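[step 3/7] fold_predict: job queued, chain A
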Amino acid sequence: MKKITRIDAEWRAQLSDLAYRVTREGATERPFSHPGFPKAPGRFRCTCCGAELFRQEAKFDSGCGWPSFNAPAVAENIAERPDTSHGMLRTEVTCSACGAHLGHVFEDGPAPTGLRYCINGVALDFEPDCEPEPGEERSD
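[step 4/7] structure written:
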């Protein structure tokens, strides 16, 4: 995967204030603060660089307040590293292409992986596989 680098001013110009704080500074959006995502088939891309991160079929409702997935769409597009902030040992999840902070992964998810990728909604852009029919439900 090609690495994407930009200077800070470019990221700030491209992203909303919250998206910048989350993806570039490692902040976390408040739980249940991001609007629901469509239920239509599609993919979730990195809001910073567009890399495909997750697919709709891997999304599930964990009740934690952030979008949750049990597997990445393309494993190479996700990087993981230890995070000891806030007095906890967690595994941070970042975009392999641009280094954007996405969230964390936990080992309390559903089968078949047993993983829960707990991702900040502001770090994701949804791309439908096809346009919905008029009147079709679009959100969770």
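[step 5/7] annotate
The two ends are 32 Å apart (CA to CA).
The CA atoms of residues 91 and 110 lie 18 Å apart.
exit 0
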